[in-house]
Amino acid sequence: MSSQDTGGQATLAPQESRVGNDVPAQTRSERFASGNVDDFAPVTGRETEWKLSPVTKLAALLDGELDGGTYNLSTSPSDGFSMSWVAPQDAPRGVAGLAEDRIAANAWSSTTEILVVDIKGEHAEPLRLGRTELGDRARAGHTIIRAHANSHATLILESSGDALLAENVEFDIQDGASIQLVYVQDWNPGAIHYAAHFATVAKDATLTHIVISLGGDVVIVNPSTQLVGAGAAGHLWGAYFADATQHLEHRVYVHHQGPQTVSRVTYKGALHGKGARTVWVGDVLIGVDAVGTDSYEQNRNLVLSNGTRADSIPNLEIKTGDIAGAGHASATGRFDDEQLFYLQSRGIEELDARRLVVMGFLVDVISKINDPSLVEELTHKIQQKLSRTEVE
User: Are 289 and 272 spatial neighbours (Cβ–Cβ below 8 Å)?
Assistant: First the structure.
């Protein structure tokens, strides 16, 4: 295993050197990890982890120089909610994970200021972070979010405007904490955003991680969650809507390590327009000590026109026979004719009926957010996107 970050760079055991080694790990937990970009071979696009991604568009993040300094953030002040920028050598990087690919490692190596966010106590109102002024310069980011023991909160991070961004985000969810983290990607057309999320969830703690991807040219968000403590729970939700200009990608990993852990993964996406592309890969690993595990993951994609492509790959690996339950499912298709018939029989025009079906499909995930105003805002954005869509 790679050790915790020291001095801004990860240290590695000699046998973990990756350069020139293209043999993929057969078990998700054995994937190579490092905070040093030079430990990763150049990407050709033929690698297992990259063959579904638009590597040409990602070239600036794969191999280019990245500005790893501070950027402007808006925030909602609250007691028990603080943020600060610190130097890499002073930040507890590597607590939740290490970079597992070249872009994440390039961001790790390039970051010169780390954003550390601390959440303590109970917060009835959602906490907020917003960023809108990143611009089109290639950037690196690293954020560490610490939910202290027995804290309870919803934290919303909304991203909009222009961006060419590679970032790592770590979540340290400590004993007894219950945290909902909501990440909204509503970038301008042409924006490129790659994010690797790493979480550790301790004893009797609950992490709800929600990803909403609507805007941007290429948006890739890869959440990795380690349920390390007894009784830890992870709920990972996602909703996305890709049109003809967009590639939206999500690779989800849940590793059950502690006993009596629970995970639920549900991602739903809609696609419209020739060239619209989505990728979803879901990996669940139930470890040898994760007795009593209860796990289920699913991905659903709704195709609204010809010329789209949705890749959906669920994987489940179980290393103990003593579990409460585990399963996975994936489906990609067009409308349910029975739903359309029902709506039309109530006097709703066919086009409106189809749009209602899409809304209900995606809002099923969006409604999980603990902020009615944000749910309303995102619902309106989907309605606007649908209004520009001739649903077939």
Answer: no
> Tens digits of per-residue pLDDT, 209-244?
999 999 999 999 999 999 999 999 999 999 999 999
Q: What is the CA radius of gyration of the chain?
A: 20
Phi, psi of 379 (to 5 degrees): -60, -40
What are the boundaries of each domain within the chain?
A: 14-335
Contacts 24+ apart (CB under 8 A), 377-382: 378/184, 378/212, 378/214, 381/186, 381/214, 382/214, 382/241, 382/358
- For residue 67, count other CB atoms closer than 10 A to its CB: 18
Q: What is the pTM of this model?
A: 0.91
- Identify the H or E element spanning 380: helix 372-387
Within 13 Å, how many C-alpha atoms sit on residue 96's CB side? 27
Q: Are 216 and 158 in contact (CB under 8 A)?
A: no
* Secondary structure of 89-145 in HEC code, one letter for each residue: HHCCCCCCCCCCCHHHHHHHHHCCCEEEEEECCECCCCEEEEECCCCCCEEEEEEEE
Q: Is the CB of residue 316 less than 8 Å from the CB of residue 284?
A: yes
Token pair recorded at residue 181: 């983290």
Cα gap 3→387, rounded to integer Å: 50
**Angle of helix 372-387 versus helix 350-366 axis, rounded to 10:** 150
Q: Per-residue pLDDT tens for 244-301?
A: 989 999 999 999 999 999 999 999 999 999 999 999 999 999 999 999 999 999 999 9
